[in-house]
Amino acid sequence: MKTFCVLGDHRAAKSLSPRMHNAVLKQYGLTGWYVAFTVAPDRIGPAIAGLRALNVAGANVTVPHKETVGRYLDEITDEVRAVGAVNTIVPTGGRWVGHNTDVGGFIDALAEASFRPGRTGKALVFGAGGAARAVVAALRQMDMAEIVVGRAHGRTD
Predict the structure, then answer these.
(1) Checking DSSP bridges between strand 88-92 and strand 75-76, what pairing results, if any?
(2) HEC profile for the chain?
(3) Does 26 qualify as catalytic in the annotation?
(4) 102: closest CA among 85, 115, 117, 89?
(5) How many of the other CB atoms lie within 10 Å of CB of 14?
(6) CA 143 → CA 102, 106, 129, 147, distances in Å?
(7) CA dihedral 46, 79, 2, 93 (to 10 degrees)
(8) Which whole number is the average pLDDT over 101-124?
(9) Per the omega criterion (within 30 degrees of 0), is the bond before 91 cis?
(10) CA 70 to CA 153: how far, in whole Å?
């Protein structure tokens, strides 16, 4: 049985990811399960070592670990370097590789909506975390003419 997980802080316990991913595993008759692991920020290194030791098949990464988890992996992709955030970890050939799927996912979503900004488009991106940086990277790849990043001053978590 394969184990997949999401790594996050105390908010991981409230994640809908296990429910969604377990439903997909069941729908396709795949043997495995997806769980949420709550990991304190100062314990992300040992948590990655634990995932390796337990032969976890893959992991999603969420706040606050997206920016720091890369240093505990064997490799990170060019998109991770560009965005500065890992949101997916895939064991590949004995190496643990950090990916960022937000850039491509955002581009795909815009394409599906027939949105093509070109050189005259303007965008306002709220936030400054890993996902917001991925959106900015995607918009740059799409030749967005102007990108303004705004950040809320208060946190609600």
Answers:
(1) unpaired
(2) CEEEEEEECHHHHHCCHHHHHHHHHHHCCCCEEEEEEECCHHHHHHHHHHHHHCCCCEEEECCCCCCCHHHHCCEECHHHHHHCCCCEEEEECCEEEEECCHHHHHHHHHHHCCCCCHHHCEEEEECCCHHHHHHHHHHHHCCCCEEEEECCCCCCC
(3) no
(4) 85
(5) 9
(6) 17, 14, 21, 10
(7) -90
(8) 88
(9) no
(10) 27
Environment class of 111 (CB within 10 Å of its CB; exposed 0-12, middle 13-18, buried 19+): exposed
Residue 79 CA, chain-centre distance (Å), reads 11
Amino acid identity at 153:
H
Choosing from 2, 14, 26, 66, which is the catalytic residue? 66
pLDDT in tens, 65-98: 999 999 999 999 999 998 999 999 999 999 999 9
